[in-house]
TrEMBL record:
Gene3D superfamilies: MFS general substrate transporter like domains. The chain crosses the membrane at residues 20-44, 145-164, 203-224, 230-249. This is Solute carrier family 22 member 24. Keywords: Membrane, Transmembrane, Transmembrane helix. Residues 60-332 form the Major facilitator superfamily (MFS) profile domain.
Length: 332
């Protein structure tokens, strides 16, 4: 027996409520994570602004976005350069956005570099989280890690909406990136592990549709909600539904088998059979297959040797040359 024995079990299970629960859970998370990842679009946009000189007591002759110039006819023995002052407050155009991270924390002029950093720290978090996530999901389980990381991501976003210090927001943004993006990898993996072979290509494409719909949902939210804090809070709603469904999702049976948790794997498979209303092989046969799969999976070189056409062709060519088989080498 090979690891394809589990695919045989998936073929028996077919497509039913058990599989669809995985896909729905992952789809809801994709809906939510769009707002987490692309928050800069509406949360910290490039807002038009002008210098606010209402608190300046001296007469002002020139006003720019980041500086203003005190009128020279009111001052003496001072150069033009010395008359130029930096703005300390600004007036923001609220035609499209009433309250943004940009306007609330004045991320303009000398502090304009902080606005892209809001997204940069998220990217750094995702970059560091991806390899860590892969290791942890193999060690502790797909469902377990997805539940933990999605919960951390949602909490990080909610705490971001409560924060009043920009440095704290950046720290929370880092944790959002550390957990939100990598959770997509785990979710996709568990969906593929619960899908029978003939449907994997179709399912792999279809479970990406919530990402596309989530992009439209995020655009609609950004149009309707003008306050960045409430925008992020509303964007987490699909995440709550995802967490609720995760409580009913079984751990990946494939992972349970590979990790040696055969009793739990048997329980998960029998539950899947009940939900999908199919008849499964006996418990003894299922356990026998599990032991065979686990034994085989520990020797991945055999899987490569048996299944890779390149390996087989190389082996045939080598034997042909050693045995003096005639004909062209490419055909041997």
């Amino acid at each position: 027996m090979t690891h394809s024995d589990f695919d045989d079990i998936l073929i028996i299970l077919g497509l039913g409520k058990w599989n669809l629960l995985y896909y729905a859970t992952f789809g809801l998370y994709e809906f939510a994570v769009i707002g987490f990842i692309f928050a800069i679009t509406f949360v910290a946009p490039n807002v038009h602004f002008s210098c606010d000189v209402s608190q300046v007591t001296e007469p002002v002759s020139v006003i720019e976005q980041c500086t203003y110039v005190i009128s020279q006819n009111e001052t003496y023995n001072v150069t033009t350069e010395e008359l130029q002052e930096k703005c300390t407050s600004w007036i923001y155009n609220d035609t499209y956005f009433e309250n943004t991270l940009t306007s609330e924390f004045d991320l303009v002029c000398d502090d304009s570099y902080l606005r892209p950093i809001f997204h940069t720290v998220l990217t750094i978090g995702g970059f560091l989280g991806s390899p860590i996530n892969g290791y942890l999901s193999d060690r502790y389980g797909r469902r377990t890690l997805m539940l933990i990381t999605s919960l951390i991501a949602i909490i990080s976003v909610l705490l971001t909406t409560l924060a009043t210090n920009f440095n704290i927001i950046l720290v929370l943004r880092f944790f959002t990136g550390l957990t939100s993006g990598p959770t997509i990898q785990t979710g996709f993996t568990i969906c593929m592990e619960a899908c029978e072979p003939r449907l994997r290509t179709s399912v792999g494409m279809l479970i990406s549709l919530p990402w596309a719909f989530g992009t439209m949902w995020w655009g609609a939210l950004g149009y309707m909600i003008k306050d960045w804090r409430w925008l992020l809070r509303v964007s987490t709603i699909p995440g709550y539904l995802c967490l609720a469904l995760l409580l009913f999702v079984s751990e990946s049976p494939r992972w349970l088998i590979v990790s040696g948790s055969h009793d739990l794997a048997l329980k998960a498979i029998k539950r899947a059979g009940k939900w999908n209303k199919v008849t499964l092989p006996s418990d003894e046969e299922l356990l026998t297959r599990m032991k065979s799969i686990q034994k085989y999976i520990r020797r991945p070189w055999r899987d490569y040797k048996d299944q890779c056409p390149c390996w087989r062709r190389s082996k045939v060519n080598t034997k042909g040359q050693e045995g003096g088989v005639g004909g062209e080498k490419e055909k041997n």
